[in-house]
Design a protein that fits this description.
The protein is α+β, with helices and mostly antiparallel strands. The protein has one domain: 2-Layer Sandwich (Alpha-Beta Plaits), CATH 3.30.70. 19% of the residues lie in helices and 32% in strands. The chain is built from two helices and eight strands. Helix 1 runs antiparallel to helix 2. The longest helix has 14 residues. The two termini are 26 Å apart.
């Protein structure tokens, strides 16, 4: 998949205790994004935060580490992100969903040999350094 230029970043913040049919909600969101053919998704686990309830959740020692924030970030074209939003209407009953315009500077995967797709290894003869 090729993704460059203007895009949209979808950010979903939920608690790590949120579940969908007995599995973590963030897992369901990532799997649905993958099934929808979106460019990629990343899950980040927060160590502290608060949301609409104003209750602070923290992982600090001697504090209860319950319902820590989980951030799911998905970047793709505006149309593909907008088409994915109905999934979130169904899944996210508590949390925060935001959209931001962004610019993709580089989006490159690797081939099985570990070389970036479409790029020659740096030590290839004739390759400009």
């Amino acid at each position: 998949m090729r993704l460059t230029g203007t895009a949209q970043r979808l950010t979903v913040i939920v608690g790590d205790s949120a579940h969908w049919h007995h599995k973590p909600l963030f897992t369901e969101i990532v799997h649905r994004a993958h099934q929808a053919g979106l460019a990629g998704a990343t899950v980040l686990h927060g160590v502290e935060g608060f949301g609409a309830t104003s209750r602070i959740h923290t992982s600090r020692i001697l504090s209860l580490s319950e319902d820590l924030p989980v951030v799911i970030i998905i970047v793709d074209s505006h149309d593909r992100i907008r088409d994915f939003l109905p999934h979130l209407d169904e899944l996210v009953t508590e949390g925060l969903v935001t959209l931001d315009d962004c610019e993709v500077i580089r989006y490159v995967g690797t081939n099985p040999d570990g070389v970036g797709a479409g790029h020659a290894p740096m030590d290839t003869p004739g390759h400009d350094r």
